[in-house]
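Fold these two proteins, one after the other.
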Amino acid sequence: MLNSITMVAVNVILNYILIFGALGFPALGISGAAIASVISEAVAAIYFIIYTQKNASTCKYGIKWRFAIDCRVLKKILSVSVLMMLQNGLVFGSWFVFFITIEHFGERSLAITNVVRNISSFLFLFVQASASVVSSLVGNLIGKEKSTPFLYVCKKVMLSCYMIILPIIVLFALFPESILRIYSDNTALVFDAIPTLKVMLTSYLIAVPTFVFFSTVSGVGHAAASLLIAFVSLSIYIAYVGIISHFSSSVPLLWTSEHIYFLSVFILSIYHIHHWFTGINSQGKKIITNIP
């Protein structure tokens, strides 16, 4: 949390200095924003190193500060991380396709999508945080063979996430104009963006269980399955966007692609978890699945 605060503070200050040319610096515009982002990330990395040096037990965690490459360990890390990198690349690629499609409908449609996407990113912070928690806890429970049912953990995390985002969703739905005016003072744009905003908000009712169970797949170490789920779901997502855009230029209708994507990921994740449980149980192994 402290690292995030530090990174954001540095980014905000440098954005002001480099974009507008404050304190004698040249005004760099959008290039200044990029430079500020890079510097803030570097500051975050340095913060983590200093924090670890001062607070982490080198004996307990086997930390060696002498730089060396262990090819055996690196190979194990890459065997999982490469799959995760491909998965994230697919997600960003699908968003690129979505924005290119929207762009063909005109500047107004693209502006609406950008505004709604910014609001969606705020809500996604809570969902992503919950998903990260599930991934860590499930991996820990499976690794240590704890008696706590990890599906019970998923249930608890989902309820916690809903308790946070549901009031926000209701607030945004009741006062859409006030929320949209944070991002634009164009009255016509704000009015046109309201239907799209409401469609986006409903997608988060599905997003919570989707990302919790999807992260469970990653948490138990099934990186290849996670990649396959993402690939199939994004293929369905892109096909849906292509079909809808062929028959309609409605931005709210195109945003229903989020529902299709979340549903696809949810169904495939549940199927994989169920299939995994069935396979383990058929081999006579003990698996922790009960939900009190």
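Now the second one:
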Amino acid sequence: MKQEQFEQHNEASWQDFEEWLKWRHKRHAKRPGKDGKKGFAKAPFPSRELPERYRIICLQLALARDRDYTQALVEHLHRLAQLGHDVLYGAQSGFTRRVLQYAAGGFATDVRANAKWVLASALLFFGPMLAAMLAVHLWPDFAYLMLSPEQVAKFESMYGNDSRALGRVARDASTDFHMFGFYVYNNVSIAFRCFAGGLTAGVLTVFYLIYNGLSIGVVAARLGEAGLAENFYSFVVGHSTFELGAIVLSGAAGLKLGAAILAPHRMSRGVALRQAGRSIIGMVCGLAVMLFAAALTEAFWSPLKLGLPIKLTVGGVLCALSLAYFTLAGRRDGT
């Protein structure tokens, strides 16, 4: 069945479902009058029909995904299914509960729903990073195309064996709490550029992903050539999963915004942009938590002078847990 036929056949039931949700919201929001009665319009269908209508929408969502219908239709059905799920299973009982439920699986589900953007962002970030590392290994002076001699010397001093504050950039920040604030600012600024760059039709998002990938790759390879690889990886391995993962997700969000501007399909650019923004707001909140966790780890765990095997083990466990979460969490609905 073509998408146009699919939409024409089911549009009325979708509108009824959405109207019922609005009716329910008004019904719970309005207070009884003096006579104890509530004045609101009649529901488009009896409440007892909600489970069956919810089941049908979930089936239609699965069909839309399987038949490669437009992203706009898939997201519309996903929103209806999510709202129906919230009503049926009581997810609207409190803000804290909704946050915990989203953290338990909704975040991972949203990331998987945007898998093509996440993959594109990862290629734009990690591809240049690996290319830069190989280039510096084969031609050490390549580092000076990205960094000035003063910057190279600064990084080598930061991760040198005689460094008292290994990996710390702000020498005037004397406490871990100061460094925590610095890392939050630094991480958020990078992620925000990648995300907000989507408003330039994705051009700046692509630029920041490639630039940051190249920069990190050059620094890592240059320190390796200088014999400081153990110091560098001992410091970064603990927080890199959260930090680099959040950058990739922010890039994915930016790319999706850019695609909405470049290819709005049958919608206006404004509508397409708003729809794309609504679909990624949860993912943006989730990556913000990842940035906070990265800063926390970088400030309080990464500077500890422990053996490299211990640091690698902890970093590996955090990476494995993160991959398991994004792969497996929230799959009750088959997403």
